[in-house]
């Protein structure tokens, strides 16, 4: 197995690590950097629990190899409230009961972050489209849609 | 009426956090990625386990060689079926002979019986190397004939899965209440339905099963950091199998990423991990892959209903029915045959018919084993009663709303004893239905339907009961030798040296917000805010805060969990008041009130002892106490035991559950006649779970249960081909609803307090599969309104099946026959 040295910035912190060429980005985050907030819910790229921002874009970190992230700037759920003060979206998820078990929540928050960055006042339809790549098995999405709507100030 | 109808005296809560949707305690860590799920737990030197799995639905293991795998660099070792057979005993079976002769081990011994069954475990320094090594394990199989259709399981010449049992039948029995034959003879009409099928699916929690298992050689102690949702039962399975006392198995959970019953039967994998941790002398990390979960963890029970005969009067009054039910539990029974009795908690559904006969048989097939998936076994029965209701209405030309209202058990009949001795505690089904119809604007929907110009629009209702707090004595109706009955749950609460209040639950939550809800109940009793109560997250069997039935399953927390919390907190309250009364000049405990973190004399609020002082005195300064107060520990444990009695084996009669929450759903669907695609135009769910401690959490549970059932009705199926290959082994093929698949779900509620729980609460959350019933009803309604005589005979209705019903409605119409008498 070939090892590669990669350098990434995650939540503003710089890391340099040796990784196997076949290591998935999500496993790199979870196992090598111990950032376990990013979750794995499937092995086919359907569920979105592993969603992170890569250079500002939402990506599924199980669909990328760690080496593909070399040089990138990543944001994971741990980076949303670096000083422990919840951001607007996190607060909205809590206030509107947009999470139950919390397993999809990190990915859902990152997808919503990306959506609101692109479209600050999305309609309900646009919100549903924006989180279409994230599966939640607890909420039926009702309160997630409410939370994102509220976070957008609507 | 059974003795369980004796209601405890209701207690008025003083401060009033109960009933409010306060922010959840769990949310802070979960929205920051700081939850601790099983796969997040790491240990130095741990080895990753990967299972080599069966590529056949049914095959004999001819030979097996792990030497190449063990020789690979980075591999720590393996576990083979021979080792498992030597080091463990088969997990005990709940059923009667000969089904009880089935031998179920942690790995496939001698034969594989379903796709994905674990055969060999490989442990390595990384998950990637473990996978590589798994590829080097050589297993030679001799394929055997495969049984995938439960209806063939008892045929002459059918492959027998378990030679030790000599039959594919796990359990079989007849339930006969009232006088079905008399009712069928006396009725104006008999509606006969040849066959209905409840499909195989599961609620597929987003977090797969996982564990980090450690073994302490010095003490023989196994510690399992895992996401098992019913550890008490896991221990009962695993202790004897591993030949260790239960206390040697310490189960720890924190955050669990959904369970829905699918994390009740992971003891097979946990046992393999225990053996590996002991053998390889290192922590073992196991995380199931999604494909593993779909192929070889837990599905919901598939069930066939044959030869249904319903006794009906011309006005739609239903007198009774008989049915032959055939349940398919997959390759191993595990939690089964409990599903062969659990349905009886809701035998008549919501209806008043008194004459019911069910011939019930459960068989094994070459498919994944099942587990108690959300709505377990009752959902199938409720689907049957709802299907009967709609078919009867349509065949008799009656309005399904009217047929339901005519037959619903009425509020003034509550508590209502069902034909088999269950006691429906409270409820108002007709009012819930009215509310649901109001939410979908029933009159306009009917008008829209009438003016639809060829569009296929249908309206459907799903009426369900969510029975909660099992009387495990029902297991003895299946097997009188079993030593299970009643139920229990535990909570402990302490006041510590610096005034900290620490509450420990026996439950094992997976997103239901127990930390929050428990704190509301305790806060009201102690006169503090929920923020001042630290509720330990998760479960740890070393906290001594659990009992045999501890766990989170079967809609029971709002009764068992909260009754335990309330009981423990009331004991603590009394101790604090006794202590403060003594310290504050000899006041009677009844004359001391708890308020704002102080114990105060009612006659002199200036005389107040802060909780911190109480904690300090008892824990660290007790020589100052008079002898009569030295029994006070400020560490109180309460075990809640519901007032059940044993059911009657001969009559299969008795109270099987304590509370019954109601959910009535209504929906409007439009079917595309070209494709058979079903679009939900409007959806409403009305819930009655008695007193709601946290209304927002209740509504969230209603949403979730609805989503699962919509998925089951339209999108999700575990389909097998004739060779026993699973065709839907991942989220590509097994389509769980995403945000665009689901409608906005309107909710409504009423509160009919349970007379059987002291808080007036009822367990809820499973929802009884209401959306499956409502959508099936709406599809049939759309077809009938369009003049197509089809019946919906399957719980799963993908576009191709609906299209077929549109094109050739006579196919399913032929399943029904009505005779006039």
User: Oligomeric state of the chains?
Assistant: heterodimer
Query: At the fourth CATH level, what is the homologous superfamily of the largest domain in chain B?
Result: Aldehyde oxidase/xanthine dehydrogenase, molybdopterin binding domain
Distance between the termini of chain B: 35 Å
Structural class of chain B: alpha+beta
Q: Which two protein chains have the largest interface (Cβ within 8 Å of the partner's Cβ), and how many residues from each?
A: A-B, 60 and 60 residues
The overall strand count of chain B is: 30
Return residue spans of chain B where pLDDT drops below 50 for at least 5 consecutive residues. 1-14
CATH topology of the largest domain in chain A: Ubiquitin-like (UB roll)
Please state the overall shape of chain B, judged from the principal axes of the Cα atoms.
globular
Structural summary, described in words:
The complex is a heterodimer of chains A (154) and B (821). Chain A has 154 residues and is an alpha+beta fold. Chain A contains five helices and five strands. Chain A has two domains: 3-79, Ubiquitin-like (UB roll) (Roll), CATH 3.10.20.30; 88-151, [2Fe-2S]-binding domain (DNA polymerase, domain 1, Orthogonal Bundle). Helices cover 31% and strands 18% of the residues of chain A. In chain A, strands 2-1-5-3-4 form a five-stranded mixed β-sheet, with helices on both faces. The longest helix of chain A is centred in the last third of the chain and has 14 residues, at 105-118. The model of chain A has no long low-confidence stretch (mean pLDDT 97). Helices cover 26% and strands 24% of the residues of chain B. In chain B, helix 17 (695-714) crosses helix 18 (770-785). Chains A and B meet through helix 2, helix 3, helix 4 and helix 5 of A and helix 1 and helix 17 of B.
């Amino acid at each position: 197995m070939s090892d590669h040295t990669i350098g990434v910035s995650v939540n503003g912190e710089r890391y340099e690590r040796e990784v196997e060429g076949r290591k998935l980005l999500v496993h790199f985050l979870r196992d090598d950097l111990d950032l376990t907030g990013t979750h794995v819910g499937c092995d086919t790229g359907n569920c979105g629990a592993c969603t992170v921002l890569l250079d500002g874009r939402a990506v599924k970190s199980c669909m990328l190899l760690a080496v593909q992230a070399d040089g990138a700037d990543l944001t994971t759920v741990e980076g949303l409230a670096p000083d422990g003060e919840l951001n607007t979206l996190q607060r909205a998820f809590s206030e509107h009961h947009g999470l139950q078990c919390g397993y999809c929540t990190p990915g859902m928050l990152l997808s919503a972050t990306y959506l609101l960055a692109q479209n600050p006042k999305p309609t309900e339809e646009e919100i549903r489209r924006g989180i279409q790549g994230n599966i939640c098995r607890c909420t039926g999405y009702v309160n997630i849609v409410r939370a994102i709507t509220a976070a957008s100030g609507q | 009426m059974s003795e369980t109808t004796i209601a405890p005296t209701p207690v008025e809560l003083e401060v009033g956090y109960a009933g409010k949707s306060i922010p959840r305690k769990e949310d802070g860590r979960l929205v920051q990625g700081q939850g601790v799920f099983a796969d997040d737990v790491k240990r130095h030197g741990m080895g990753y386990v990967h299972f080599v799995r069966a590529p056949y639905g049914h095959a004999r293991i001819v030979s097996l060689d792990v030497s190449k795998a063990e020789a690979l660099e980075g591999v720590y070792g393996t576990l083979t079926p021979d080792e498992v057979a030597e080091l463990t005993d088969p997990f005990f079976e709940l059923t009667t002979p000969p089904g009880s002769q089935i031998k179920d081990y942690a790995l496939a011994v001698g034969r594989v019986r379903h796709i994905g069954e674990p055969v060999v475990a490989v442990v390595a320094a990384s998950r990637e190397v473990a996978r590589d090594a798994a590829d080097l394990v050589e297993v030679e199989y001799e394929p055997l004939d495969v049984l995938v259709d439960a209806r063939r399981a008892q045929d002459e010449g059918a492959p027998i899965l378990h030679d030790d049992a000599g039959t594919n039948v796990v359990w079989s029995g007849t339930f006969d209440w009232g006088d079905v034959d008399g009712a069928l003879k006396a009725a104006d009409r008999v509606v006969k339905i040849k066959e209905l099928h409840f499909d195989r699916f599961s609620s597929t929690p987003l977090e797969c099963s996982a564990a980090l298992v450690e073994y302490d050689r010095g003490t023989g102690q196994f510690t399992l950091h895992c996401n098992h949702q019913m550890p008490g039962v896991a221990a009962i399975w695993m202790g004897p199998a591993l030949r260790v006392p239960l206390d040697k198995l310490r189960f720890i959970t924190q955050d669990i990423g959904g369970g829905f019953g699918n994390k009740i039967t992971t003891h097979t994998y946990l046992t393999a991990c225990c053996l590996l941790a002991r053998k390889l002398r290192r922590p073992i990390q196991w995380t199931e892959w999604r494909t593993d979960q779909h192929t070889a963890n837990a599905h919901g029970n598939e069930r066939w209903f044959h030869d249904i005969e319903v006794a009906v009067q011309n006005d739609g009054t239903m007198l009774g029915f008989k049915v032959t039910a055939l349940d398919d539990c997959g390759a191993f029974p595990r939690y089964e045959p409990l599903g062969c009795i659990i349905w009886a908690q809701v035998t008549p559904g919501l209806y008043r018919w008194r004459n019911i006969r069910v011939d019930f048989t459960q068989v094994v097939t070459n498919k994944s084993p099942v587990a108690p998936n959300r709505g377990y076994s009752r959902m199938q029965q409720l689907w049957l009663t709802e299907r009967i209701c709609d078919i009867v209405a349509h065949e008799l030309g009656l309005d399904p709303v009217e047929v339901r209202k005519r037959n619903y058990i009425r509020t003034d009949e509550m508590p209502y004893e069902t034909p088999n001795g269950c006691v429906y505690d409270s409820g108002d089904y007709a009012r819930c239905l009215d509310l649901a119809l109001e939410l979908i604007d029933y009159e306009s929907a009917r008008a829209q339907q009438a003016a639809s110009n060829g569009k296929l629009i249908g309206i459907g209702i799903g009426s369900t009961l969510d029975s909660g707090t099992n009387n495990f004595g029902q297991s003895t109706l299946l097997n009188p030798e079993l030593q299970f009955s009643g139920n229990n749950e535990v909570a402990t609460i302490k006041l510590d040296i610096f005034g900290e209040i620490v509450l420990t639950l026996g439950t094992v939550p997976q997103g239901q917000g127990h930390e929050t809800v428990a704190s509301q109940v305790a806060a009201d009793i102690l006169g503090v805010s929920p923020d001042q109560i630290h509720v330990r997250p998760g479960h740890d069997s070393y906290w001594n805060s659990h009992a045999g039935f501890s766990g989170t399953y079967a809609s029971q927390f709002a009764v068992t969990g909260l009754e335990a919390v309330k009981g423990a907190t009331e004991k603590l309250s009394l101790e604090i008041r006794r202590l403060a009364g003594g310290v504050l000049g000899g006041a009677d405990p009844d004359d001391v009130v708890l308020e704002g973190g102080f114990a105060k004399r009612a006659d002199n609020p200036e005389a107040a002892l802060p909780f911190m002082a109480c904690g300090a005195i008892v824990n660290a300064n007790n020589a100052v106490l008079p002898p009569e107060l030295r029994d006070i520990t400020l560490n109180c444990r309460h075990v809640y035991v519901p007032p059940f009695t044993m059911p009657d084996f001969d009559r299969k009669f008795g109270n099987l559950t304590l509370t019954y929450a109601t959910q009535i759903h209504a929906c409007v669907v439009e079917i595309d006649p070209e494709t058979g695609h079903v679009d939900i135009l409007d959806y409403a769910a009305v819930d009655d779970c008695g007193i709601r401690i946290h209304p927002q959490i209740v509504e969230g549970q209603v949403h979730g249960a609805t989503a699962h059932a919509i998925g089951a009705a339209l999108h999700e199926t575990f389909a097998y081909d004739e060779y026993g290959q699973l065709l839907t082994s991942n989220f590509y093929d097994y389509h769980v609803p995403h945000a665009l698949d689901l409608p906005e779900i309107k909710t409504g509620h009423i509160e009919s307090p349970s007379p059987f729980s002291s808080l007036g609460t009822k367990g809820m959350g499973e929802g009884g599969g209401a959306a499956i019933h409502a959508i099936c009803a709406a599809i049939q309604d759309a077809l009938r309104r369009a003049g197509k005589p089809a019946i919906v005979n399957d719980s799963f209705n993908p576009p191709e099946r609906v299209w077929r019903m549109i094109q050739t409605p006579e196919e399913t119409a032929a399943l029904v026959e009505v005779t006039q008498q």
